[in-house]
Amino acid sequence: MTSWTTPAAPADADARRRARPVVTYTVDQLPAVDPAFYARARDGALLVDSVTVPPRDGRAFRVPKGHLFRITSVEGPQVGDLNLWHADNLAERFFSGKTRALHATHVTTGDRLWSVMPYLRPMATIVADTLGWYGFDDDGAGVHDVIGTRCDPYTNHLLSGGQYHRCCHSNLARALADLTGLPVREAELHVHDVLNVFMCTGFTRDTHRYFMKASPVRPGDHIEFFAEIDLVGALSTCPGGDCSASHSSDAQACFPLLVEVFAPPEGALEGWEGPGISGYDRSHGR
Q1: Other CB atoms closer than 10 Å to residue 47's CB: what's the count?
Q2: How many helices and strands, by DSSP H and E, does the chain display?
Q3: Structural domain tally of the chain?
């Protein structure tokens, strides 16, 4: 059997490795985040809806434009996988890759969740995060990542041969199907890469492989968003629990997550219109 070989390094290998890193996007021209505006929306906001997502399951919910929604740990350490869509157009959905490129591998207060092209606009802005203190630890891990995908039955079958239906991909598909009335196989086609809420992740320093570790989330911790457009959301309580050991199994302790939707006080949004879709003409040079 022929083994893989590593090519010999060129004479200027060290010089190539010393190339200066350049942050890919300069983001000074992004729409400004105004903390005072979001504080007005939050101050005196009224609870109008709530959904409890049971362990190893998913639930979908609606958030009108200008409202807020909060995801809270209520009983024990639990991570969740979040999908977002435009309420009237499921084709406009959360774009984790562009969110990562514009902000960072992990997001927190002041960062935004962006939609896919050709829309490419803020869907939601993070306005509160009780785990914002965590930062990055000695392993290089942070909280609320936009680098992972979601545990799914296809990868599980690929690696184990099993049929597991309580993974996040399936939970999100069932949740969207229940809310919209779509057949689950059709709803599944709209499920996409997630914001891993409360999940603590990074890349190993030696092999650069994606890793997870026990989430620092505790009951009462929450992350809160302002809906920049009319949204449908779906949240899965990951079968990995706090993701300290495994996922896609029934071995881990799992707990519910609470989603609450709040209406801003009267007059708080006066003069605000919300973001329009991208102004690119879509001619693509033709």
Answers
A1: 11
A2: 6, 13
A3: 1
Read off the pTM. 0.96
Q: Is the pLDDT of residue 246 over 90?
A: no
Residue 241 CA neighbour count, 13 Å, CB half: 14
Q: What six digits make up the tokens of 29?
A: 């021209």
Dihedral of CA atoms 185, 189, 193, 196 in degrees, nearest 10, equals -30
Give a yes or no: residue 7 inside a domain.
Answer: no
What are the b/e assignments for 212-230, b being 16+ CB within 10 Å? bbebbbeeebbbbbbbbbb
- 3 belongs to a structural domain: no
Please state the rounded mean pLDDT for residues 269-284: 96
Rounded to whole angstroms, the Cα distance separating 172 from 150 reads 10
Residue 206 falls within a domain, yes or no?
Answer: yes
- Give pLDDT tens digits for 106-119: 999 999 999 999 99
* 86 in a structural domain: yes
Provide the angle, in degrees to the nearest 10, between the axes of the packed helices 153-160 and 168-180: 150
Provide the pLDDT for residue 32: 87
Q: What is the pLDDT of residue 86?
A: 98
How does pLDDT run across 31-45, given as a tens digit for each residue?
A: 889 999 999 999 999
Domain housing 88: 51-263
Q: What is the C-alpha separation between 220 and 244, in angstroms, rounded?
A: 19
- Region of residue 9 (phi > 0: left; psi between -120 and 50: alpha; otherwise: beta): beta
